[in-house]
Amino acid sequence: xxxxxxxxxxxxxxxxxxxxxxxxxxxxxxxxxxxxxxxxxxxxxxxxxxxxxxxxxxxxxxxxxxxxxxxxxxxxxxxxxxxxxxxxxxxxxxxxxxxxxxxxxxxxxxxxxxxxxxxxxxxxxxxxxxxxxxxxxxxxxxxxxxxxxxxxxxxxxxxxxxxxxxxxxxxxxxxxxxxxxxxxxxxxxxxxxxxxxxxxxxxxxxxxxxxxxxxxxxxxxxxxxxxxxxxxxxxxxxxxxxxxxxxxxxxxxxxxxxxxxxxxxxxxxxxxxxxxxxxxxxxxxxxxxxxxxxxxxxxxxxxxxxxxxxxxxxxxxxxxxxxxxxxxxxxxxxxxxxxxxxxxxxxxxxxxxxxxxxxxxxxxxxxxxxxxxxxxxxxxxxxxxxxxxxxxxxxxxxxxxxxxxxxxxxxxxxxxxxxxxxxxxxxxxxxxxxxxxxxxxxxxxxxxxx
Length: 450
Known about the structure:
It is built from 17 helices and ten strands. The protein is mainly α.
């Protein structure tokens, strides 16, 4: 004998505790679970008794858990999933915020009301393939169109990011035993259409920093200094904005903080601090800013209270590129932005002979894979290539000479063997050439010799 239903408590991703129940069908087999939407078992028991009286306790007659129910608060900082993940890896506020935006703008409009157990692989695949045809809006809420008036859809890379978000959520639903399998597991990502990032050339860098550089940078000392530091260190923009006077020392700076959309953080992206040596010219620029901003934020225009916003640096960088002759189309096509300095420095330091480990000590990359991603070495930058090519050519010439000598030697050996002519057989005019055989030594009778 058993009760008509059994109750148990489950914790949602946002930390909320809700009571669920199992029921028993006509074959006396336990089925479920289903939510009572109650926070305690007393209220849940009352709820289940009402269902029994209405004949709605059987699972087939009860509304199942929807994706919207499951997704509520999933990416909140205090949710069960985020807490579990943070015990293994660091999740930045930027990452969580981006995930919340993907859920709100792209996932919920399609899956909100669907029972989570009914979502199939085909549903996910159809949703993913539809990104390229969906309206894409800019920051002002206007639909983005190209010059010909055609709709500009989302890039594959953006759609793949959204797929990664819902994949994480469905995997968690499997872990919580809400669904038997992950419908995203076998969905293939769209082909990569990420924009190729081009590195600044040495000539362009010289034009950006001439003897009198301020006019190129709109006569704003802060934006000039920020870009000059980035061009020498490859620091992330948030790290530059987060640099304080208290971390500027004799001949080097200590990178141990960052400033972004969520204010100042006293750690870098990788949570590892690093010291970067600087040339005297750059140190002089920093000390000049510190005279105005003291021990506060170095790249500030309000006495060090707060740094200039990152958008100010981005706009100034774009204008500087246009002042040295680059067009808007070229800047867009090459993907040039203040982050391009990170690519430039990674490349230049390796061209100058620094090892991967030495480059990482400057840029702060935690893996060789990331350092390789930011490296764009042009063969023209590598010394000794022409010398190597000359050596290859010289070896080729020597090989040709050796082959010719070998051929000539073989020819001479053939000519040493004298051919003899024999008359052709009757009925034909062909001549057969045979080589003379060496005369065999005469046989002598040993008995006669005796």
